[in-house]
Amino acid sequence: xxxxxxxxxxxxxxxxxxxxxxxxxxxxxxxxxxxxxxxxxxxxxxxxxxxxxxxxxxxxxxxxxxxxxxxxxxxxxxxxxxxxxxxxxxxxxxxxxxxxxxxxxxxxxxxxxxxxxxxxxxxxxxxxxxxxxxxxxxxxxxxxxxxxxxxxxxxxxxxxxxxxxxxxxxxxxxxxxxxxxxxxxxxxxxxxxxxxxxxxxxxxxxxxxxxxxxxxxxxxxxxxxxxxxxxxxxxxxxxxxxxxxxxxxxxxxxxxxxxxxxxxxxxxxxxxxxxxxxxxxxxxxxxxxxxxxxxxxxxxxxxxxxxxxxxxxxxxxxxxxxxxxxxxxxxxxxxxxxxxxxxxxxxxxxxxxxxxxxxxxxxxxxxxxxxxxxxxxxxxxxxxxxxxxxxxxxxxxxxxxxxxxxxxxxxxxxxxxxxxxxxxxxxxxxxxxxxxxxxxxxxxxxxxxxxxxxxxxxxxxxxxxxxxxxxxxxxxxxxxxxxxxxxxxxxxxxxxxxxxxxxxxxxxxxxxxxxxxxxxxxxxxxxxxxxxxxxxxxxxxxxxxxxxxxxxxxxxxxxxxxxxxxxxxxxxxxxxxxxxxxxxxxxxxxxxxxxxxxxxxxxxxxxxxxxxxxxxxxxxxx
Length: 622
Prior knowledge:
- Homodimer.
- The chain is mainly beta.
- Among the domains are: 10-88, Nuclear Transport Factor 2, Chain: A; 98-189, Nuclear Transport Factor 2, Chain: A (Roll), CATH 3.10.450; 240-297 and 375-445 and 476-608, Copper amine oxidase, catalytic domain (Beta-galactosidase, Chain A, domain 5, Distorted Sandwich).
- It has helices spanning 10-24, 43-48, 98-110, 112-120, 296-300, 524-528, 562-565; strands spanning 31-38, 58-65, 71-77, 82-88, 129-135, 150-157, 173-178, 183-189, 229-232, 235-238, 241-248, 252-262, 265-281, 293-295, 320-327, 333-355, 359-376, 379-388, 393-401, 406-407, 416-420, 423-426, 428-438, 446-453, 468-474, 478-480, 489-498, 504-510, 536-540, 577-587, 597-608.
- Strands 9, 10, 11, 12, 13, 14, 23, 26, 29 and 30 form a 10-stranded antiparallel beta sheet that branches.
- The mean pLDDT is 97.
């Protein structure tokens, strides 16, 4: 039985592609499909849905004509089998696609000029090379190639057919490619710093003298009576938690209709939680890295780069999996087996007190984990949404994989850290923008900035010990910044729903991993990603406002998202609000991050702050 928020099925992707072919001739080789996703119904329609109701299905598609380069946004009525809208967006570039990445790699490795350039560097077997495509920002696009859909390519080389390509960059060599025609536009050679003899292998078969540890005993996690959660299609129930699980090509994992079942009704907390953008600027101005800024969500798509999870490796315990279905650039369905992992974890003590007379009372903490894994070329991102028995929600990201490295001669550049022989890894940053469409006990919410204030020493505060809370409602949309010195946070309150103590029910955004952009406002990188200039943005809900740096970030010049929307200064008081939280990793490489990174972990929390009348975990069984 279909729910209005269920992701598109394989048959629906085929139907959408057939509609595009029939109505507008969208077919390979002259057209590519950048993305097809469910056009989610209005919140009112979702709220009104009851089991057994007919579910109208619509899809939104972004396609482009490779002969003209013009992209189009199509609205498709799958239930009515019709094309509803067809809008051209000239001078924009859709996201890059996995098909283009592979096509470019194959075409360039077979190109005689590339073969010759590799041979000049002592690489006689092009099959050992890897051509890795990156996209441009408008300001960095070479003047001679403006107006095209252009990618620039690093070249890497393996020592063996199955060894690590990212161990050995063919530094100084760059390919510039028209991705519509797969034409090699230019080979740029900044000089050959050589290929130092580094140990860049991580797979045991290729690590010299590798010996696995023998002192690790088996660790088994079992639930002999089965799991404590239930999964009905995409609807998840675990203890008091209720939610639906979605998936899109751009965001990857999405959580819908997150709520807490309290007695006879489910109290809403958030309508939709997802990642809306990931900006990764490399902070190295040398020719090898000056163009290396990725918009991993807007330019490539976390869904497209999601990989299958494996029991015992990615997930441990009693696991349930959800598969995901996406599509290629012809619209053909592509299944990702085990794309989403669902399981319970023990997480230590939930609460405890030892009384001198009554003795100890202790409860162990259990959490429900919804996770997925994304491979972005050399990097890996593991995303975990965790639900806790005390009503808290944690969002954690673990970054691992392989750093980009570059050989050097003479003194090492100051823009990174030496990690191997004559090889450095540049400083870089990972900014993730989480889109938190909140609905705390209903849609009329007000965000309140809350922080600690220190009153001056005086008659009422003779020792200067006093701390008070300062609470300031956010009434107009716009940015907010974290302040470590006051422990600033933000509460999403519902003023019309007081708790038993007379204060508005609320959920608090507890900041974590709030990193500064450290970009000059005049920077062309910052112009494209002004969203990362602040810790938090608050906006009123608008179904069309989904991408904080704009929809078309490939070859973009300016940020067409949050700074444009918030310039209208709309009211966000007693409103349906969306929080855009910016967090991430300020990665100063370590020698220990090479040749493969131990996972770097960052997170933030949504915690009840007066949503309940007391600790909701008092009833957890001992």
